[in-house]
């Protein structure tokens, strides 16, 4: 797999997880949008992956 495919898969997983969390948020507590906090954390992780900043080095 190349890098763009891996990043695209990560983005799809990010989107699915946030939709799921968003639905849970709207069902359980629609007056408090706590879903922004997981979105920010996951967004930082995704951005880190896109920029290639990783604590573990891949061995080819």
From TrEMBL:
Pfam families for the chain: 2TM (PF13239)
Residue intervals passing through the bilayer: 12-28, 34-53
InterPro entries, alphabetized: 2TM_dom
Domain 2TM as annotated: residue spans: 10-52
Alphabetic keyword roster: Membrane, Transmembrane, Transmembrane helix
Full protein name: 2TM domain-containing protein
Source organism (scientific name): Pseudoalteromonas distincta
Source species taxonomy: Bacteria, Pseudomonadati, Pseudomonadota, Gammaproteobacteria, Alteromonadales
């Amino acid at each position: 797999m190349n890098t763009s495919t891996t990043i695209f898969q990560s983005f799809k997983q990010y989107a699915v997880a946030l939709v799921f969390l968003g639905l849970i948020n709207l069902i359980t507590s629609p007056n408090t949008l706590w879903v922004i906090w997981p979105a920010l954390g996951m967004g930082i992780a995704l951005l880190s992956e896109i920029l290639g900043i990783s604590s573990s080095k891949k061995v080819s």
